[in-house]
Amino acid sequence: MEDLKSLETPLVVMGSVLLSWKIIRHIWSFMDLAKPPLTVLVTGAAGMRQIGYALIPLIAKGAMLGPNQPVIIHMLDIEPASQSLNAVKMELIDSAFPLLKGVVATTDVVEACSGVNIAVMVGGFRRKEGMERKDVMSKNVSIYKAQASALEQHAAPDCKVLVVANPANTNALILKEFAPSIPEKNITCLTRLDHNRALGQISQSLDVPVSDVKNVIIWGNHSSTQYPDANHATVTTFSGDESARELIGDDKWLQTEFITTVQERGAAIIKARKLSSALSAASSACDHIRDWVLGTPKGTWVSMGVCSDGSYGVPPGLMYSFPVTCDKGQWSIVQGLKIDEFSREKMDITAKELMEEKTLAYSCLN
Ligand SMILES: NC(=O)c1ccc[n+]([C@@H]2O[C@H](COP(=O)([O-])OP(=O)(O)OC[C@H]3O[C@@H](n4cnc5c(N)ncnc54)[C@H](O)[C@@H]3O)[C@@H](O)[C@H]2O)c1
Ligand SMILES: O=C(O)C[C@H](O)C(=O)O
């Protein structure tokens, strides 16, 4: 009896601690879900079996803005796709995502852009057989010009924009030019897919988990002239972070097959799937926005297509992919990396292609 009595107080204390912890957690999760929702626009949202269809559930599940951030999703597509767009809305309702606080499915660009905090631009015109590059550019220039104005006038003032649709860098450039009141730091394009592909290739080559590999770089255009650079990449081992280049010990592979595999991965997926990459593009778009909004982990950089400030000799004003770190919703280009002659040449080739695309895009405006 005495023995049981001596246990009474510690048990009561433990019970109270557990109860308080449960109450605190309950209040905490309630407060999180009570956060005001952020509105995310996805254009090209009806792209059946494609990026839109893969991306929207990821956003609704919290993969883009975190597991405690409620969201409202605006989906825009064109009139011929409106039936498919409504089907996506029906499926979103049927999924009962706890974070999803509202869905708008529309073909009206003004309604779609109203009040958005994040805009993911997946919609665009795809090259069809027999079409000239200039014809495709011309269609995308007019789409991005119109959507730039709608975002400028109707989105939230601090709206962050990610352009996914190809030609991603040049579409983002047009959007920046025609939305001058959106800070240029808020307009970016997707090269995170290429970055993740480069991490994947190194992880496969060394047979290490991809989460142990970091700090590859994609320089330049999201096209086959991009320069995937592993010179500064590291791999976490038992002895700390080691140079990926030294661990691989095969500079020839790094300067040939590694680069071409990443550059041509999009085409390889299209050949194998008969459709362009959707799952990996959607997942990378979430990575891009998540790191931009919530910050990159300490000691890690990622690749983002951003407006060049002249860093690394890249012509200012071009939308070019750089290594960046993010903190408090702002990206900064990583400075001071050593650039060897081989890299310099590759970085200039992709900058030259971007300048040619810019000239072509401007010629479509006339
Ligand atoms: N940057 C990258 O890493 C990356 C990776 C993969 C694909 N992409 C590009 O992303 C784009 C989308 O790919 P997808 O496979 O989802 O294509 P998709 O053809 O399935 O979807 C595109 C959608 O855009 C819509 N659309 C066309 N014009 C529009 C407009 N004015 N406003 C709104 N929506 C419009 C179409 O109706 C369609 O539903 C393509 O340009 C593709 O090349 C980029
Ligand atoms: O859609 C494409 O042309 C390919 C895409 O940009 C990709 O990199 O997978």
TrEMBL record:
Designated name of the protein: Malate dehydrogenase
Biological source species: Perilla frutescens var. hirtella (Perilla citriodora)
Binding site for NAD(+): 44-52, 77, 140, 164-166
Domain Lactate/malate dehydrogenase C-terminal: start-end pairs: 191-359
Record family assignment: Belongs to the LDH/MDH superfamily. MDH type 2 family.
NCBIfam families: MalateDH-SF1, MDH_euk_cyt, PRK05442.1
Keyword line: NAD, Oxidoreductase, Tricarboxylic acid cycle
Domain (Lactate/malate dehydrogenase N-terminal) ranges: 40-187
Source species taxonomy: Eukaryota, Viridiplantae, Streptophyta, Embryophyta, Tracheophyta
